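Field log, afternoon session.

UNIT: design team B
ACTIVITY: writing a sequence onto a fixed backbone
BACKBONE:
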């Protein structure tokens, strides 16, 4: 899909560079603001639903099957989606939940409850409220739709983990800002917060949501595994339990008492009972 620079791109870049020198340095490094053009509203939302919680390549395969088996040579209409049987949707690769979501979207569009023609005259929050009435479409998905389908210039996805991580790193914060903190921090980028978010994604050298998986935040670095504690081997028979550092036996301090004979560590290794994560395995961070 060919990149596209919205009409406000030049003004946005100039404003952001003046308002925020740190972001301005990222803009100089990344280059012009350009996004993929996705004009078809129904197709964009179907794509967003299919890509939820899936890796980009796997999601693209399912999306291609969906188009081929239901729409043939063209993207399927809402009527064709509603007519598709469970077996067909299952063969495409959709889960039961996503089958419900694409049908609910098709039903909203076919019945006129979701009218894309009205969006040009609606405010961003009104569009988000309209879209999130559809099952499977949350606020984040609606925000991506505003940014990369309707080309709204002033959308800041404060719940996006990639944007939050980028801000925390670029501005040397102790931790990534929370949604409320990011909303306040982002006031400096108005009225071009969409463009600021795009450059923040690019600062992480990640694939932006409109390029690959619109259901995932930008790339996050995996947490390195912790090394297991090194456990010292006891030097004499004692009541020392495995997992505690060895201490000298009181008997060994008296020359009149013959030290206890200790077996070689090779012939009788002591197995560590300390797990790799002493405080329990880390809980994966939400996507």
């Amino acid at each position: 899909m060919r990149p596209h620079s919205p009409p406000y791109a030049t003004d946005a870049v100039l404003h952001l560079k003046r308002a925020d020198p740190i972001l301005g340095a990222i803009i100089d490094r990344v280059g012009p603001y350009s996004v993929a053009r996705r004009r078809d509203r129904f197709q964009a939302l179907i794509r967003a639903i299919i890509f939820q919680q899936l890796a980009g390549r796997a999601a693209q395969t399912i999306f291609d099957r969906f188009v081929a088996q239901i729409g043939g040579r063209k993207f399927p209409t809402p009527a064709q989606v509603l007519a598709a049987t469970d077996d067909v949707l299952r063969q495409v690769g959709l889960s039961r939940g996503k089958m419900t979501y694409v049908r609910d979207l098709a039903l909203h569009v076919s019945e006129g409850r979701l009218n894309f023609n009205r969006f040009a005259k609606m405010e961003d929050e009104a569009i988000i409220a309209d879209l999130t009435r559809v099952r499977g479409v949350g606020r984040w998905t609606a925000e991506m739709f505003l940014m990369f389908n309707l080309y709204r210039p002033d959308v800041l996805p404060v719940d996006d983990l990639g944007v939050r991580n980028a801000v925390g790193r670029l501005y040397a914060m102790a931790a990534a800002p929370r949604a409320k903190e990011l909303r306040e921090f982002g006031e400096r980028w108005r009225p071009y917060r969409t463009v600021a978010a795009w450059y923040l994604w690019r600062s992480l050298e990640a694939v932006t949501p409109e390029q690959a998986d619109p259901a995932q935040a930008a790339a996050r670095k995996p947490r390195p595994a912790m090394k297991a504690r090194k456990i010292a081997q006891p030097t004499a028979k004692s009541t020392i339990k495995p997992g505690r550092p060895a201490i000298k036996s009181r008997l060994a301090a008296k020359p009149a008492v013959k030290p206890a004979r200790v077996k070689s560590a090779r012939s009788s290794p002591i197995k560590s009972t300390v797990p790799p994560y002493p405080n329990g395995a880390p809980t994966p961070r939400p996507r």
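LOG NOTE: Strands lie at 3-4, 35-36.
NEXT ACTIVITY: expression trials, pending approval
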